[in-house]
Amino acid sequence: MENVFHVLKERGFIEQCTHEEEIEKLLGEESVSFYIGFDPTADSLHIGHFIQIMVMAHMQRHGHRPIALIGGGTTMIGDPSGRTDMRQVMTPERIAENGEKFKKIFEKFLSFEDDKAVMLNNAEWLLPLNYIDFLRDIGAHFSVNRMLAAECYKSRMEKGLTFLEFNYQLLQAYDFYVLHQQQGCKMQFGGNDQWSNIIAGVELVRRKDGKQVYGMTFSLLTTSEGVKMGKTAKGALWLDPEKTSPYEFYQYWRNVADADVKKCLALLTFLPMEEVQRLGALEGAQINQAKEILAFTVTEIIHGENAAHEAQNAARKLFAGDNGDAEIPSVDLSKAELGDGRDIVFLLEFAKLIPTRSEGRRLIQQGGVLAAGEKVTDPKAVYTASDFKDGKLVLKKGKKAFKQINLI
RNA sequence: GGGAGAAUGCCCGAGUGGCUAAAGGGGGCGGACUGUAAAUCCGUUGACGACGUCUACGAUGGUUCGAAUCCAUCUUCUCCCA
């Protein structure tokens, strides 16, 4: 079987390794147990986590054993790495709830049968810890001097870092130590922002057990301009269809910058690299084909084939100017609520295309609103039941935002 | 524990008694150009019953005809000393 290290390297996942040659050798020789930690700070995973999930999937396909670690314990502290502000302290109930949701998502991407992958929660061993014992056993191995010098705290050295957060690294290192002992875990992966935490774990295992374990980090998904990808107007690009609809999700990828197409295909899909190369090399208007494939494939992996087809059809129809079908994101408006007619601003607000009525008026004045294909020029224009063809009215805001109102 | 300073719109950041819904930048949104791209350019960016009204410059109270700007108390944060 092909060495997964080469696959990950070729696809551009790998950013830093603790011991490149040894890791390559190890992954080529035996089935390795490795772990990636996910802190349940929100009620859904987002696209940043998805990269890590892809890595686990690639690894599992090549015969290795993923340990998906849910950070029920570490989330009680909050990881300060690479952040400019302190994380909000979360209640244990919320953390547990979010953790359950994470579990369900992992089950979609990994096979947990026959111990081919395991899912654990570090709350199990972190919550019962005794402070004094922990300090003596684990804390003694850490150098504050070294920790402070680490790049990941840099921005926090200016703004302030609490002792609570400062302890995060010890806990993550301890996770690795526990997993090494209990699960024979030899590697830890993570986003590039996890580098310091991962090295800390590698060193702790070496000091405590005298064993060599390894760490590797993966590129964070950034645009060619270095901005974090996966940000939408509403915040993160979530994997949960309730939080980010498959259509929105599809559109996000359909609209990535030319320069990022190849990278996204390599990191977010399982398409063979020859295909990725070919698609990424397309130029001019042709690269739109590659973007369609990217959008469809990623949506398919996350939301399934049907949802991907629906999203694609809706997008194609809307951008082809054919507003005829029901796959467009829509809202229902009762006849009673429409009454003798409502003004355009009401309809825009009702369809959640605008946050305030002022925004709606401004938009109309700037010529950014189309109703049933006609540009709306008067903010006071009133729409009645007769304007709904077959009980439908498609509103278009700008070039890319559509919403259909169904009269019921 | 002692001392110094800061808190402004989504973010950064000017403003130190009326001309301030608050400069400038970033971001967002709309338009032009295009390929549902990037870059660029133009416009816009508190809300609402919209040439007017209301709410806003950490919180509360006060001085004043009038406060983001002055005073008092409080809260939070940063820095220096311990």
TrEMBL record:
Is Protein biosynthesis one of the keywords UniProt gives this record?
yes
| UniProt cross-references to Gene3D superfamilies, sorted A to Z | HUPs (3.40.50.620), RNA-binding S4 domain (3.10.290.10), Tyrosyl-Transfer RNA Synthetase (1.10.240.10)
Domain Tyrosine--tRNA ligase SYY-like C-terminal: residue ranges: 326-403
Q: What enzyme class is recorded for this protein?
A: ligase
> What are its E.C. numbers?
6.1.1.1
For the motif 'HIGH' region, give the residue ranges: 40-49
Query: What chemistry does it catalyse, as a reaction equation?
Result: tRNA(Tyr) + L-tyrosine + ATP = L-tyrosyl-tRNA(Tyr) + AMP + diphosphate + H(+)
Residues the entry annotates as binding L-tyrosine? Y35, Y168, Q172
Q: What residue intervals hold the motif 'KMSKS' region?
A: 228-232
What is said about its interaction partners and assembly? Homodimer.
Report the NCBIfam families cross-referenced here: tyrS (TIGR00234)
What protein family is recorded? Belongs to the class-I aminoacyl-tRNA synthetase family. TyrS type 1 subfamily.
Protein known as: Tyrosine--tRNA ligase
